[in-house]
Amino acid sequence: MLTSRRTVLIEWGDCDPADIVFYPNYFRWFDASTAAHFRSAGLPKPKLVTDYNVVGFPMVDTRARFLVPSRFGDEVVIETRIAAFGRSSFEVEHRLMRGDVLAVEGFEKRVLVAKSADGAGLKSVPVPEDIRALFTGDDT
């Protein structure tokens, strides 16, 4: 599976009064890392929308394991990969590394969606095989 990496410098405003990263910021970084992962595979979100007639890939489940705190001034690297594909869903795993130390693990389940026929809602759509191949390296 393709793995992408994104560096984040932790800013003062990312931290809480205890001088550690305020936990919602990890989820913000993971969301941006998922978009960056698609971009690294050659499929930035605007291209995904226009080429596949979808509106995006909203999250339907998320969680994290916080192992080691990060602080203002730390530079961390977020490693992102798609761990599994379902029919219309995919599972994303993030590993936030502070040097050689695993600080946080993040997990997302997302679904590829298009507008419903009436235009008032969303409906899941199957993940096309060529999109799967971008992340798995399987060209069959």
Which helices and strands appear, and what pairs or packs with what?
Layout: E1 3-9, H1 24-40, H2 45-52, E2 59-66, E3 75-85, E4 89-98, E5 101-111, E6 113-115, E7 122-124, H3 129-136
Antiparallel strand pairs: 1-3, 2-5, 3-4, 4-5, 6-7
Describe this structure in words.
With 140 residues, the chain is α+β, with helices and mostly antiparallel strands. 24% of the residues lie in helices and 38% in strands. It has helices spanning 24-40, 45-52, 129-136; strands spanning 3-9, 59-66, 75-85, 89-98, 101-111, 113-115, 122-124. Strands 1-3-4-5-2 form a five-stranded antiparallel sheet. It has a two-stranded antiparallel sheet with strand order 6-7. The radius of gyration is 16 Å and the shape is elongated.
Major sheet strand order: 1-3-4-5-2
Tally of separate helices:
3
How many whole angstroms does the radius of gyration measure?
Answer: 16 Å
- The best one-word shape is elongated
Portion of residues within helices: 10-25%
Q: Mean pLDDT score, rounded? A: 95
Largest sheet: 5 strands, antiparallel
Helix/sheet category: alpha+beta
Low-confidence stretches: none
